[in-house]
Design a protein that fits this description.
The protein contains ten helices and 16 strands. It has 315 residues and is α+β, with helices and mostly antiparallel strands.
Length: 315
């Protein structure tokens, strides 16, 4: 019986030695051998493939015999301070982790997240330092197609911070406008030459090009427009970026007592500003109507006149 017990323990000792030759309990590393896969290594060590790839900065799941993998997250200073980060459009946990020199696992642990799902506006705890260099204030010249949200994303900041830095009271920006920006860019952003000044007649001529284009809910291209998508598109063609929805355009524009050519006229169809068009003079406006597509309508029209809310300017 004693001899049998010693034999069994010896066999177990061989198994332990065999495992320890590949993974070190102290160093938490693993040396890849023939037949290994990331999935097999991760499963054996109670990890996910994503964690192993993150711990080792792997861009793909390709591995090689003899390659040494870390089986633990990169060491972090537990006494390091944390700061807050507000999630913006286009963010993901992996992108935030990269910007703050940490891992998705650490972010989830720090914020007690059970999944990778995050929402715009959500406030996360992040390590106190980022991979970016010290923030600097620079200038950026707005180009065609820009919006505050796009510029904020490119400079790793927020629309609120941009508006505060530039004393902006709305989200409306114009091509050629010079903005102060803070931080380093996440991509290559070049400053173009200033564009021509806003031209009302050119704006109206551009709008008239699309008469007959059908109405499409959420549409913002010449293949189909909704009312705010149509305005957004034609103003952008003249180098002016305006918000995307009727309600946000209403909030961002300046009230006028009497509409002038190039102003936006607003209507209440569902409660509050819910439809809008471009005033073109002679008591007419051009708009994308749900039953007409892009068309020119008289302000005294029996349907639109009682629903008229007022006019606002974005010039």
């Amino acid at each position: 019986m004693k001899k049998h017990l010693i034999t069994t323990m010896a066999a177990l000792g061989i198994l332990v030695v065999s495992y320890s030759s590949n993974a070190s309990a102290n160093e938490l590393t693993y040396t890849i051998k023939s037949g290994d896969t990331l999935w097999k290594i991760a499963t054996t060590n109670n990890l996910t493939v994503q964690q192993v790839m993150q711990y080792n900065n792997l861009a793909t799941s390709s591995i090689q015999i003899g390659q040494v993998l870390s089986l633990q997250a990169p060491s972090t200073n537990t006494s390091a301070t944390t700061t807050s980060y507000t999630v913006k459009s286009g963010d993901s946990l992996s992108l935030i982790a990269k910007n703050y020199n940490t891992t998705v696992t650490e972010l989830k642990s720090l914020n007690q997240l059970t999944s990778d799902v995050i929402k715009v506006g959500q406030v996360l705890k992040v390590p106190g330092t980022t991979t970016s260099q010290t923030s600097q204030t620079a200038s950026y010249t707005v180009k065609s197609g820009d919006s505050l949200s796009l510029i904020a994303k490119n400079y790793n900041t927020t629309v609120t911070d941009l508006k505060t830095l530039n004393n902006l009271s709305s989200d409306v920006i114009k091509v050629g406008q010079v903005l102060k920006v803070s931080g380093t860019t996440t991509g290559s952003v070049q400053t173009p030459a200033p564009a021509p000044a806003f031209n009302v007649d050119a704006l109206i001529a551009e709008a008239k090009k699309y008469i007959g284009v059908p109405y499409v809910w959420g549409g913002s291209t010449p293949s189909g427009f909704d009312c705010s998508g149509f305005l957004n598109y034609v103003f952008a063609k003249q180098g002016v970026s305006i918000p995307r929805t009727v309600a946000t355009i209403w909030d961002a524009s300046t009230p006028v007592s009497t509409p002038q050519k190039g102003d936006i006229v607003f209507f209440d169809t569902t409660g509050g500003p819910s439809h809008a068009g471009l005033y073109i003079g002679n008591n007419q406006f051009i708009h994308a109507g749900s039953s007409t597509g892009v068309t020119i309508t008289d302000m005294s029209n029996s349907y639109w006149k009682p629903r008229y809310l007022g006019a606002k300017s974005i010039k």
